[in-house]
Amino acid sequence: MGAAFLAAALLLGACDGRGSHSSAGASDRAEASEEAPAGVHEFGPDRYEAVVYAHEGEYQPSEIRIPVGAEVTFRASARDLPHGFLIEGTDVELDLFSGRFDEGTYTFDEPGEYRFICHVYCGPAHDMMSGVVVVE
Ligand SMILES: [Cu+2]
Questions:
Q1: Which residues does 110 contact at the CB level (< 8 Å), separation at least 6?
Q2: Residue 56: what pLDDT?
Q3: Residue (of 131, 125, 130, 88) closest to 110 by Cα position
Q4: Which residues, by Cβ under 5 Å, contact ligand 1, an ion?
Q5: 58 alpha carbon to ligand 1 midpoint, in Å?
Q6: Which of 55, 53, 22, 48 is nearest to 37 (CA)?
Q7: Tell me: the pLDDT tens digits for 48-95?
Q8: Rounded distance, CA 89 to CA 133, Å?
Q9: What pTM, to 2 d.p., does this model score?
Q10: CB-count burial class (<10 Å; 0-12, 13-18, 19+) for 116
């Protein structure tokens, strides 16, 4: 009887383990997208975070406005296929995959417009993928 109880407990435990593992993964992804809305978020003096998503040949947002002198951490992810995120004139070059973020930080000391493009071939819309960081 003792052994039967132990076996049942192990079986129950194993089922619980599998169930909670897969549901935790799903909720992690949901939380990640809800906790990081696309756009620019200020989190300190001259410190900004820009959350960018690549989706169906577009970036969200496609225009990022920040003040000159700001240190910006770009956190970017893809919502469909793998994409790239390269800001011309900077060392920010990120690889975007669905379900996780890649990060790069840059301080914009000069005002101007810095174009960003996709540098990972992603299909017919690849050449249309661009946006701009406006530093003013
Ligand atoms: Cu592309």
A1: 68, 135
A2: 85
A3: 88
A4: 118, 122, 126
A5: 9
A6: 53
A7: 999 999 998 999 999 999 999 999 999 999 999 999 999 999 999 999
A8: 11
A9: 0.74
A10: buried
Q: Please provide the average confidence, as pLDDT, over all residues in the chain.
A: 83
CA 88 – ligand 1 centroid, Å: 15
Residues with Cβ within 8 Å of 76's Cβ and at least 6 positions away in sequence, in order, are: 51, 52, 53, 54, 85, 94, 96, 101, 102, 103
Residue 47 class from Cβ within 10 Å (0-12 exposed, 13-18 middle, 19+ buried)? middle
CA 33 to centroid of ligand 1, rounded, Å: 21
Cα(7) to ligand 1 centroid in Å equals: 53
Q: From ligand 1's centre to the CA of 131, what distance in Å?
A: 12
If one looks up domain 36-135 in CATH, what number appears?
2.60.40.420
Alpha-carbon torsion (80, 40, 111, 95), positive or negative:
negative
